[in-house]
Write a structure and sequence with these properties.
8 helices, alpha/beta, D-Amino Acid Oxidase, Chain A, domain 2, single chain, about 350 residues, binds flavin-adenine dinucleotide, 3 domains, FAD/NAD(P)-binding domain
Amino acid sequence: MSAEFKVKTNKPILIIGQGLAGTILAHQALSAGFEVEIWDSPSTHFTSSWAAGGIFNPVTGRKLEATWLAEEIFTYLFPFYEGLEKTLGTRFFYPMPLFRPFANAEMKGWLLDRKSQIDHDFLLWTDVGVWVSNSGWVDVATLLSASSKYFTEKKILFRRRFSESELSEISQPFERIICCEGFHGQQNAFWKGFGFLPAKGELLTFKSNQPSEEYILNKNGFVLPLGNQEFKVGATYRWDEYGPNSVPEAQAELKQKLVNFQIDQYEEIEKLVGVRPATQDRRPLVGMHPTINVGIFNGFGSKGVSLMPYFADAFVGEWLGKKMVHSEASIRRFSHLFSV
Ligand SMILES: Cc1cc2nc3c(=O)[nH]c(=O)nc-3n(C[C@H](O)[C@H](O)[C@H](O)COP(=O)(O)OP(=O)(O)OC[C@H]3O[C@@H](n4cnc5c(N)ncnc54)[C@H](O)[C@@H]3O)c2cc1C
């Protein structure tokens, strides 16, 4: 790294939250040479990342479009997770093809008529659907627990709750404080008006001999193979309550998805519940507050696994004066909220 972009402070960065966002940002900051301290309070603010399906997939929607910045983000993602597996000495990154069957004959005809317009390198067309390359899943629970052990061994992870009222006492010893609070961030007064739109979701893990273990099946939901004949089916969305518990309607919806996937012999293993930290404009919230040394790394919605590594690199690069976070992800788009 050129001397121009080296860390020029010996004060640590304080990261609030050890969900997937705080974890990935902490790894990126450490590898850039920053000292890091992490405060996490899962007993008071539940961690949604443990519920994630963990899927990454560069194709979205009924029209099979490439996702936002897919080329850059998916080029960055593979070496990032492979490198992190080496750092942590644990396997959690599983590239795997994803298959999207055509919903019905009408949809197949509609898509084939537009094939030349929607075609891109991530798609391989067949008679019954499309294969999506550069897909797979991250075992987020394993990544979080291996990281927790790694941070604990480095003595940088603390079970401690952050509150805005203590800012004047704690801001001095830290170079900057970055809030990675997931959907709890909508309660944080620093980020009022940022358009949080959290979406609660549930998944079900189950054991069955019926689905394929070779690929992720994606048709109005997904079936994700975990190995040993275990799978996840998901996911549900609701916006009316954000509690940590499973609700019967969501479980009924997941069982209906299994029926639709023609899976009728299975043994339930576990219900998983979380809240996606989504935003109204469907873009992340990355950047520093304009007047205090507090920043935010949040708003990754249902695409945390693919977006976080790329944007954590960009955010740390911004601290070093090396690059700027993409304008659509940067909180510079809310600068009118801070003007006096
Ligand atoms: C059912 C479901 C399925 C999903 N599937 C996928 C998927 O397939 N692919 C994908 O990419 N994404 C998926 N997601 C989304 C993904 O889980 C999220 O993008 C990601 O987990 C968000 O991580 P986070 O770190 O921002 O939030 P969280 O995981 O909620 O972490 C926030 C952390 O901050 C801590 N915290 C909050 N406030 C404070 C405070 N004041 N003091 C101290 N600590 C605090 C909390 O204790 C918590 O540990 C899914 C989500 C759900 C719910």
